[in-house]
Amino acid sequence: MSSEATVLAPLWRSLLWPGIVSAIALIVLLSLGTWQVQRMHWKEDLISSVTARLASEPAVLPPPAEWSALDPDSYQYRRIAVTGRYLHAHEQRAYMVVSSPKGGPLGGQGHWVMTPLELADGAVVWINRGFVPLHLADQDITTGQTEIVTLKGLMRPPEKAGFATPGNESGFDGKLWFVRDPAAMTLQTSLESGAVVAPFFVDLEAGNGPALPQAGETTIAFSNRHLGYVLTWYGIALTLIGVFVAFAAREYRKGQTPN
User: Fold this and answer.
1) How far is CA 87 from the centre of its chain?
2) Which helix (H) or strand (E) covers residue 233, if one does?
3) pLDDT at residue 165, as a whole number
């Protein structure tokens, strides 16, 4: 057997398992990096779509027959116009803190005012009429809002509780929510069981009625840190390759060192 073969045989044995483990880890790291690239492109497309929706004229609300097939990603923040009559008797409240008011001067702790709107065909859409601070929470805000109204706002999908979001619980006369979910709010009310209720709600834009509730407080922000994640996973993969090459070179030099 040649001297080169004598060196390589134990070298391959010493590199076999480290090489297998490193290859598996490399595949995982590259997969994570590629997944983040895909997520980055998805987020960029979403931001572009939402920006276009916000700049467009209000569209007509989709008919109830199409509601169940709507994709939240396709309608999130879509500007729409809707006409109907408020059902103030079924109003609900959701806890909210407005730190940077946009639709008016009021901020701090308070409530979103969620009121169902009955359409001409009897279907119902939950409307976020706006923000009311805690010190004005008991003020009558239904005056002049019993007639047929045409509103403009942004379509929003049901909210989901986050890691730090408390669960929905009774607080404001049994009607205080921390997560706005039209289906859950409907169950809390005495709306007719046969009514078709939209699986989304609408955040009113500013200028859709009286000063209270203060509309136009929708926060539109998307976190896009995917590029950082891409660089992290691919960077770790590159580091892994470098470490394995250095390890293999060291093992090769050890094999060439005379005993």
Assistant:
1) 29
2) helix 226-256
3) 63
Q: Is the peptide bond before 10 cis (omega within 30 degrees of 0)?
A: no
CA-CA distance, 77 to 81, in Å (whole number)? Answer: 13
Residues 67, 198 contacting (CB under 8 angstroms): yes
The DSSP element (H or E) to which 72 belongs, if any, is helix 72-75
Task: State whether residue 101 is helix, strand or coil.
Answer: coil
CA distances (Å), origin 140, targets 136, 160, 190, 210: 9, 30, 21, 12
Cβ neighbour number for residue 103 with a 10 Å cutoff: 20
Name the residue among 226, 225, 244, 229 with its Cα closest to residue 26: 244
| Whole-number Å distance between alpha carbons of 212 and 102 | 14
- In sequence order, the β-bridge partners of residue 83 are 150
- 92-98 and 176-177 as β-strands: parallel, antiparallel, unpaired? parallel
How far, in Å, are 16, 99, 257 from residue 109 at the CA level?
Answer: 62, 8, 73
pLDDT band (50, 70, 90) for residue 153: very high
* Residue ranges with strand state E in 121-180: 124-133, 148-156, 176-177
Domains of the chain by residue range = 3-47+224-256, 78-204
**CA atoms lying within 13 Å on the CB side of residue 37:** 9
Instruction: Provide the pLDDT for residue 248.
Output: 83
Is this model's pTM higher than 0.85 or not?
A: no
On whether the CB atoms of residues 187 and 92 are closer than 8 A, the answer is: no
